[in-house]
Amino acid sequence: MKRILSGMQPTGQLHLGNYFGALKNWVGLQGSYECFHCIVDWHALTSAYEDSSRVSDNCMLVAADWLAAGLDPQRSVIFVQSHVPEHAELHLLLSMVTPVSWLERVPTYKEKQQEIQGKDLSTYGFLGYPVLQAADIILYKAECVPVGEDQVPHLELAREITRRFNGFYGKIFPEPQALLSAMPRLRGTDGRKMSKSYNNSILMAEAAADLDKKVRPMMTDPRRKRRTDPGEPEDCPVFDLHKVFTQDEKRSEVAHLCRTAGFGCLDCKKILLDRMHPVIGPMRERREEWMAHPERIKEVLRDGAQRAGQVARATMTEVRDAMGLLRP
Q: Is 298 a catalytic residue?
């Protein structure tokens, strides 16, 4: 089977955007690919370096969510980035051959500097983020990376770095290909992109009462000021959730009732909640079971780091020899 590498930053419990945007797809790929899934704690420090006190706990929260969602330690290698130090070594060696101009032209470099206010992001770690990302991928000689179309440009830089390294030292690494997957757009409770930083997210393991409290007052199509006003589902954050929770036939009925003012927004949200609870409830129960036994989570991560480390060490032996570095 071809090998894939995917990662997420440990920023706390995962929300529905994380689940439907990536995690659900990862779970479905386990039977078709050799899967490596990495909690990228060093990446979290590129923009949150001033306070790393929550990184360790957040790694546990992310791991619990992954396991609750269905990532299987028997079919996937699940580990923490910093537990495999070869990530840092390869990052260093790739940084020797990566032109600074390549990094400065990454679209998100200037965008995030403008977006994230109150933080000094003029650091090497933030600029060199794509180099570490490339190291994460090619350390395992991953042939594919599951991404949405909007992430393809970021993967192309990893491919460019790989080509440049191979050009100097021989074809050590395969060029990672995009494994495109549909990543639905989910807006948060206030209509903006779902994000913990906006305090508008719905957790993938949200408590039942909290789920109701978040969905019932959710922002809807602004056209529907009164119940008798027709709306446009595509402009409604609630309908975004119907797209991932409600089956096609019922979803078409919901869209029709919205456009014809056949029901009110509260009726629409009730239908949605009736479909969200049966999906979120079991994930919440599985997560609570994992969190009740943190040593089991740590055991999964230790085993994953051991398995990942075996591959990483073999790769780095090959890299050092290709670069002519003296063996100890």
A: no
Tens of pLDDT, residue by residue, the chain (328 residues) = 999 999 999 999 999 999 999 999 999 999 999 999 999 999 999 988 999 999 999 999 999 999 999 999 999 999 999 999 999 999 999 999 999 999 988 877 777 766 666 778 889 999 999 999 999 999 999 999 999 887 888 899 999 999 999 999 999 999 999 999 888 889 999 999 999 888 999 999 999 999 999 999 999 999 999 999 999 999 999 999 999 999 999 999 999 999 999 999 999 999 999 999 999 999 999 999 999 999 999 999 999 999 999 999 999 999 999 999 998 8
Whether residue 50 contacts residue 7, with contact meaning beta carbons closer than 8 Å, is answered with no
Q: Give residue limits of the domains in the chain.
A: 3-186+294-323, 205-288
Catalytic pick among 141, 193, 214, 298 = 193
The verdict on whether 193 is a catalytic residue reads yes
- 106 phi and psi angles, rounded to 5 deg: -60, 125
Active site (annotated) includes residue 196? yes
CATH number of 205-288: 1.10.240.10
In words, the CATH class of domain 3-186+294-323 is alpha beta
283 near 68, Cβ under 8 Å?
A: yes
**DSSP per residue over 170-239, as a string?**
-S-SPPPEEEE------B-TTSSBP-GGGT---BTT--HHHHHHHHTT----TT-SSTTS---GGG-HHH
Question: Closest by alpha carbon to 239, among 261, 268, 275, 198?
Answer: 268
The half-sphere exposure of 311 on its side-chain side, counting CA atoms within 13 A, is 19
Catalytic residue among 2, 110, 141, 196: 196
Instruction: Tell me which of 112, 119, 141, 298 is the catalytic residue.
Output: 112
Round to whole Å and give the CA distance between 312 and 95.
Answer: 18
